[in-house]
Design a protein that fits this description.
Organism: Haloterrigena gelatinilytica
Protein name: DUF5518 domain-containing protein
Keywords: Membrane, Transmembrane, Transmembrane helix
Transmembrane segments: 41-61, 73-93, 105-127
Shape: elongated
Oligomer: single chain
Strand content: under 5%
Radius of gyration: 21 Å
Distance between the termini: 67 Å
Number of strands: 0
Order of helices and strands: HHHHHH
């Protein structure tokens, strides 16, 4: 029986909420880049999602990096699975009798693992840069201050 308790506890954690939302924002753009090329998936959406997550998530540097890496994996894993299923299905359906069918499956698992690690690295880098930007620019600036570039402490008399 499928239990929702695990998923509810996952969503109760603020870092996973940011990671899931950021990864789901990046996922359509990563899928579109693979759909257009048929060979590669773009990492730019993963970096941009990591940048946004790092900008808005408040935590230590390690927590921000962890949230960024989770964002990268959530945003890239479905596309990586999609990319690896096509060649494996082709080899298994068009296999030569002497060819071992476990080899393409092992290669696909290795491909998904390395791709997920790379996506996690790109997401973590984006999140760290986003965290740095939030410190330089400020996370929450009033709209008037942001528009006019005024200091929060200055008053016009």
């Amino acid at each position: 029986m499928f239990r929702f308790r695990y998923w509810r506890s996952l969503l109760a954690d603020e870092s996973w909420r940011y990671a899931i939302v950021g990864g789901l924002l990046a996922l359509p753009f990563v899928a579109r880049s693979y759909w257009e090329t048929g060979m590669t998936a773009g990492i730019e959406p993963i970096f941009a999602a990591g940048l946004l997550v790092g900008y808005f998530f408040q935590g230590s540097v390690d927590e921000v990096g962890r949230v960024g890496s989770r964002t990268g994996v959530v945003g890239a894993l479905p596309v990586l699975l999609w990319m690896s299923v096509e060649p494996v299905a082709y080899v298994l359906l068009e296999t030569v009798p002497w060819y071992d069918p476990l080899v393409p499956i092992a290669v696909a698992v290795l491909f998904v693992t390395i791709g997920s690690l790379f996506a996690a690295l790109v997401g973590a880098i984006g999140a760290r840069i986003g965290d740095w930007l939030s410190e330089k620019v400020g996370r929450y600036r009033p709209p008037v201050v942001a528009r006019w570039g005024l200091s929060v402490n200055s008053r016009s008399e």
